[in-house]
Amino acid sequence: MTAPTRSGRAARSAVPQNTAPRPDPKEATGHPSLLRQPRQVWAVAFACVVAFMGIGLVDPILPTIAADLDATPTETELLFTSYLLVTGLAMLVTSFISSRIGAKKTLLIGLALIVAFALLAAISGNVEAVIGFRAGWGLGNALFISTALATIVGAASGGSSAAIVLYEAALGLGIAIGPLLGGLLGSISWRGPFFGTAALMAVGFVAILVLLRGDAASTHASPIPFSAPFRALGRPAIAVLAATAFLYNIGFFILLAYTPFPLGFGAIGIGFTFFGWGVGLAITSVWVAPLLTRRFARPSIIAVALPVLAVDLIAAGVLVDSQVALVVAVVIGGLVLGVLNTVLTETVMEATDLPRVVASSSYSAVRFIGGAIAPPTATLLADAFDAATPYLFAGGAVLAATAVILLGRRALMPADHAPESALEEARAISLGDA
């Protein structure tokens, strides 16, 4: 399949990324290192690490919160649901907001909200308040995450593929460090992880305020319509990928949010287990996924990785009474998830000529909503049947995602093209900024 025309690239590049400098043509003609990035990229990447820590931060302290706040497992799982549901719904309007107030302001508002609601969660006295403040945290997370990806793609050296790998590495590190920090601080008090996140996000706020250059106060020349993310879901490629991600995230978050209960470890044990999961996710995001995409079509990689994840989830259900088996299943799941996260994100960016921020907002909204329903569904299934049922349900959802990707393969053909050169990327960005 041929690559999109330059006009298609230019249209896709015309997003609220006026904070990013235009790539150096000398650098664009060479082979820049993934690690040789502008300081503003590292500032946003650091904040991404902390933002994604919030996903797994509460994982090791779920049993402790249930005990200390006299809550049921399903009530504690709502800490994930409120966070992910608000994150997903807010994703649908973040491109509308960021295209009017600028990327930098959107990032800073998102970070400020996370700091405020993490602090409020830390001083809460009941589980209902923590659930509510996690929802506010999710709003800040949505403003930050959707804008951060577009900002990194626009500012990073080495083209969009290198930028997405860097973003997914930040995601992997955040998901890895989140449970570890949550376990270490949670062994002292369940409030500790919330205070820790607020402090780190405050550092990220200052870093972006100081290092991210650009006219953040101006309104973008071409504001994105409010309806754009909703209309994007009508594109066949985005619809296929969003439906796939919805089902796949059910498996993702059942593995993440439900496993601490049958695993039976304390906060530190759970933290180290999911630290291994996150490290595996980061390794395959950064090294394995790019190697695979150089050799195989992206939809083919997704169609193979999804059944592997389904088998892993089903095995976790069959062997749910073995702590060793569950730990192994968690780590293997992280390795597969790293490949899926990176390849799905790249496919979303390349499958249409939509602006990147619109494509990522639409896709991420549906993806997070799928994650939101998974944790309480898992505990309800465990209560109604047995501890293995949530994993079997998760495996079935991932197999359904495989069917969606196979049936919608034709719509994803534009994502099969070879990555454009860094020089072409620079020209497209320059034309889009003009």
From TrEMBL:
<feature type="transmembrane region" description="Helical">
    <location>
        <begin position="194"/>
        <end position="212"/>
    </location>
</feature>
<protein>
    <submittedName>
        <fullName>MFS transporter</fullName>
    </submittedName>
</protein>
<dbReference type="InterPro" id="IPR053200">
    <property type="entry name" value="YfmO-like"/>
</dbReference>
<keyword id="KW-1133">Transmembrane helix</keyword>
<feature type="transmembrane region" description="Helical">
    <location>
        <begin position="233"/>
        <end position="258"/>
    </location>
</feature>
<dbReference type="InterPro" id="IPR020846">
    <property type="entry name" value="MFS_dom"/>
</dbReference>
<feature type="transmembrane region" description="Helical">
    <location>
        <begin position="137"/>
        <end position="157"/>
    </location>
</feature>
<feature type="transmembrane region" description="Helical">
    <location>
        <begin position="164"/>
        <end position="188"/>
    </location>
</feature>
<feature type="transmembrane region" description="Helical">
    <location>
        <begin position="326"/>
        <end position="344"/>
    </location>
</feature>
<keyword id="KW-0472">Membrane</keyword>
<feature type="domain" description="Major facilitator superfamily (MFS) profile">
    <location>
        <begin position="40"/>
        <end position="412"/>
    </location>
</feature>
<feature type="transmembrane region" description="Helical">
    <location>
        <begin position="388"/>
        <end position="407"/>
    </location>
</feature>
<dbReference type="InterPro" id="IPR011701">
    <property type="entry name" value="MFS"/>
</dbReference>
<feature type="transmembrane region" description="Helical">
    <location>
        <begin position="365"/>
        <end position="382"/>
    </location>
</feature>
<dbReference type="InterPro" id="IPR036259">
    <property type="entry name" value="MFS_trans_sf"/>
</dbReference>
<feature type="transmembrane region" description="Helical">
    <location>
        <begin position="78"/>
        <end position="99"/>
    </location>
</feature>
<dbReference type="Pfam" id="PF07690">
    <property type="entry name" value="MFS_1"/>
</dbReference>
<dbReference type="GO" id="GO:0022857">
    <property type="term" value="F:transmembrane transporter activity"/>
</dbReference>
<feature type="region of interest" description="Disordered">
    <location>
        <begin position="1"/>
        <end position="32"/>
    </location>
</feature>
<feature type="transmembrane region" description="Helical">
    <location>
        <begin position="106"/>
        <end position="125"/>
    </location>
</feature>
<keyword id="KW-0812">Transmembrane</keyword>
<feature type="transmembrane region" description="Helical">
    <location>
        <begin position="41"/>
        <end position="58"/>
    </location>
</feature>
<dbReference type="InterPro" id="IPR001958">
    <property type="entry name" value="Tet-R_TetA/multi-R_MdtG-like"/>
</dbReference>
<feature type="transmembrane region" description="Helical">
    <location>
        <begin position="301"/>
        <end position="320"/>
    </location>
</feature>
<feature type="transmembrane region" description="Helical">
    <location>
        <begin position="264"/>
        <end position="289"/>
    </location>
</feature>
<dbReference type="GO" id="GO:0005886">
    <property type="term" value="C:plasma membrane"/>
</dbReference>
